[in-house]
Amino acid sequence: MSMKVMDSLRGSVKGSVVEEGDDGYDEARVVYNAMIDRRPAAVVRCQDAADVAAVVRAAAEDGSGLAVRGGGHSVPGFGTADGALVADLGDLTSVAVDPASSTADVGGGATWGMFNEAAAPFGLATTGGIISTTGVGGLTLGGGIGYLARGYGFSCDNLLAAEVVLADGQIVTASADVEPDLFWALRGGGGNFGVVTKFTFQLHPVAEIYGGPMFFELADGPAILAYFADYVRTAPREFGGFPAFQIAPPLPFVPEDRAGEPFVAVVFCINGPASEAEKMVQGFRDVAKPVAEMVGPMPYPAMNGLFDGLVPPGLQHYWKAAFLDELTPKSVAAHMEHGPRVPTVNSTVHFYPINGACHDVASDATAFGHRDANFALVIAGMWPDPTQNTANTAWVKDYYAAIEPFSQPGGYINFASQDDQPKASSNYGSNYDRLRAVKRAYDPDNMFHLNQNIVP
């Protein structure tokens, strides 16, 4: 990056600008996925939308490339790039809740843990992720699958407005009434259209939920998966649970001699009365006897952070995603072959149900292009030891190859890896052509290309 542009940038932003050679550069360039080791030209710790606009303009002037880091959970490492300017939104974390209107304004660098901490005292929440350290921005822009999706729709379905820095540095507010095409594209089109510095969400009554994990023997896996697939078709929308393949961690509720073994798990999150929730949970116990369980009432923020300890920063990550219409016996057989091979306690496979309220929204009402799917699958390879990268990446790829014949074309963009870019049109699904048209209107030069990219 030219010294002239860098000097101008330093003089025009309130936040810090950290270049190579500056104190703190190596800390500033670190991202969530330890596989990603990039050396950006500079990392700018933006303090407001004006700072973001200055970074966007500087990147355009210099031609050095732009990376945007929101909550910082990008598995492909899109929040950095060699030689690029990084707009780091890590200080834009304010969450202002209005209980009278059940809405919240949320900074573009906030995490769902921050969001929940602010909303929970009012007995409110909206659909967030499964891990509380996940960024609000990235999750929402990609759609937003989470525990509350069957009841309240995706995160993007609860987005009311967004403050956006465009490719020319202009700052606009997009909503159903203002910049409607941009607002449409933001709800499922990823970071392709601008930098969202503030989100406004609709909130819903969510206080104490009934939830937690339950572990079943692998031999009972086919029966549990079949029961889940049938049950969730017509389950009350308060039911937000999902099955998983998971190695049992060494926790007090797990028999000591079974910790470290793989199981078929069911994770429950039921936003309703405990008496009704217990009946829902009992249905699974009636199918097979659990080996271990920790299921009961807890505050929703506790549920959202329950698995944070399994996914600390600094792990190696490689993921694959698929959308499923059904869990057929043949597909279950493929899952039962590969799921039990989950390589570490950090790695997992989740089957998220995305029916209920997710199907209430018309397929073309937002950019999310897979409204007809019933399940979203993620094969999340996560491990601490880089010497295992080849073997564990192979587990993910082999698993995905086995279940791809039973899946829709494409997968959820928030679960996609960097090498999934050739599948962009399938990943964005039925709305890809309109997304390209909006991209051409708002970012014809593809300034925002470090993402699951929509080429203008």
Helix content: 25-40%
Major beta-sheet overview:
8 strands, antiparallel
Tell me, briefly, the overall form: globular
Q: If you compute it from the alpha carbons, what radius of gyration comes out, rounded to the nearest whole angstrom?
A: 21 Å
Distance between the termini: 26 Å
Instruction: Name the structural class.
Output: alpha+beta
Number of strands: 19
Q: Segments where pLDDT lies below 50 for 5+ residues?
A: none
Strand percent estimate: 15-25%
What is the residue-mean pLDDT, rounded to a whole number? 97
The tally of helices reads 14
Notes on the protein architecture:
This protein has 456 residues and is of the alpha+beta class. 28% of the residues lie in helices and 22% in strands. It contains 14 helices and 19 strands. The strands form 4 sheets. Strands 12, 13, 14, 15, 16, 17, 18 and 19 form an 8-stranded antiparallel sheet that branches. Strands 5-6-10-8-9 form a 5-stranded antiparallel sheet. β5 (95-98) and β6 form a beta hairpin. α11 (329-338) packs antiparallel against α12. The protein is globular, with a radius of gyration of 21 Å.
Question: Topology of this structure?
Answer:
Layout: H1 3-12, E1 17-19, H2 25-28, E2 42-45, H3 49-62, E3 66-69, E4 85-88, E5 95-98, E6 103-107, H4 112-119, E7 124-125, H5 136-142, H6 149-152, E8 159-165, E9 171-175, H7 180-186, E10 195-202, E11 204-205, E12 208-216, H8 221-234, E13 242-247, E14 262-270, H9 274-287, E15 292-293, E16 296-299, H10 300-304, E17 316-324, H11 329-338, E18 348-353, E19 375-383, H12 389-403, H13 424-428, H14 432-442
Parallel strand pairs: 2-4, 3-4
Antiparallel strand pairs: 1-2, 5-6, 6-10, 7-11, 8-9, 8-10, 12-14, 12-15, 12-16, 13-14, 13-18, 17-19, 18-19
